[in-house]
Amino acid sequence: MLRGFQAAASGMYAQQRKTDMLTNNMANVNTAGFKEDQAAIRAFPEMLLQRLDSSSRAKEVGSINTGVYMQETIPRFVQGDLRQTDRQTDLALTDIAGGPVFFTVESDGETKYTRNGRFTIDADGVLTTGSGWPVLDDNGNRITLNSDQFIVDRNGNIEENGELIARLGIASTETPEMLIKEGSGLFRTEDGTPLGNAAENVSYSVTQGFMEASTVDPSRTMSEMLTAYRAFEANQKILQAYDRSMEKTVNEVGRVNG
């Protein structure tokens, strides 16, 4: 009976965590460059049940599952749609071949990565993200401009008044699923080792005056939220049934008549 309590409770907890993840996806449906999270739900190892017969010999009853858990959340690295904004400081990345690429930024003294190209220029003329993190060039330096009247070509070269100022630092990795997702649309490597600039076999394009839309599909996400809620509710009802059975066992079956 107690195993049933544990299995139902683990199912409720897993679905609650999934609902939290889906809620965060929905909250970022309009966030530029946002990559939706997907849940990986796994079952705990099965247990083999045995019973002792009248001769005290063990006989196999069968296996029982001890519950489920949400193992991890994995960002879904697919290309988002490009939407025109006509803002000179808005830049969008398009993955062509070789895997996803990222803008490199400086955050808390570390090099981190983002797909959110809704940039701005701060009071010192530094190109920054919307959260104020400096955007880096391909040498790891901050990019300083005189105004927002600059031009960026498809390779990430930045020109101002006909002069080449810098080239955007565009990083790539063959294992994007290993990146750790942080707030403000940032990603970092697990051990803090910076990714290299996009390799020769990686093809991409930078488009100025556009933003990459979020990859969240509101209709599908709402459907998944309803499914998770129903699964939570089903486990809740199972838990209530176990509770009533335990109550009956204690108050009726276990009663000692005087």
From TrEMBL:
<keyword id="KW-0966">Cell projection</keyword>
<dbReference type="GO" id="GO:0071978">
    <property type="term" value="P:bacterial-type flagellum-dependent swarming motility"/>
</dbReference>
<dbReference type="InterPro" id="IPR019776">
    <property type="entry name" value="Flagellar_basal_body_rod_CS"/>
</dbReference>
<feature type="domain" description="Flagellar basal body rod protein N-terminal">
    <location>
        <begin position="6"/>
        <end position="35"/>
    </location>
</feature>
<keyword id="KW-0282">Flagellum</keyword>
<feature type="domain" description="Flagellar basal-body/hook protein C-terminal">
    <location>
        <begin position="208"/>
        <end position="251"/>
    </location>
</feature>
<keyword id="KW-0969">Cilium</keyword>
<dbReference type="Pfam" id="PF22692">
    <property type="entry name" value="LlgE_F_G_D1"/>
</dbReference>
<keyword id="KW-0975">Bacterial flagellum</keyword>
<dbReference type="InterPro" id="IPR010930">
    <property type="entry name" value="Flg_bb/hook_C_dom"/>
</dbReference>
<dbReference type="Pfam" id="PF00460">
    <property type="entry name" value="Flg_bb_rod"/>
</dbReference>
<comment type="similarity">
    <text>Belongs to the flagella basal body rod proteins family.</text>
</comment>
<dbReference type="GO" id="GO:0009425">
    <property type="term" value="C:bacterial-type flagellum basal body"/>
</dbReference>
<protein>
    <submittedName>
        <fullName>Flagellar hook-basal body complex protein FlhO</fullName>
    </submittedName>
</protein>
<dbReference type="InterPro" id="IPR001444">
    <property type="entry name" value="Flag_bb_rod_N"/>
</dbReference>
<feature type="domain" description="Flagellar hook protein FlgE/F/G-like D1">
    <location>
        <begin position="99"/>
        <end position="158"/>
    </location>
</feature>
<dbReference type="InterPro" id="IPR020013">
    <property type="entry name" value="Flagellar_FlgE/F/G"/>
</dbReference>
<dbReference type="Pfam" id="PF06429">
    <property type="entry name" value="Flg_bbr_C"/>
</dbReference>
<dbReference type="InterPro" id="IPR053967">
    <property type="entry name" value="LlgE_F_G-like_D1"/>
</dbReference>
<dbReference type="InterPro" id="IPR037925">
    <property type="entry name" value="FlgE/F/G-like"/>
</dbReference>
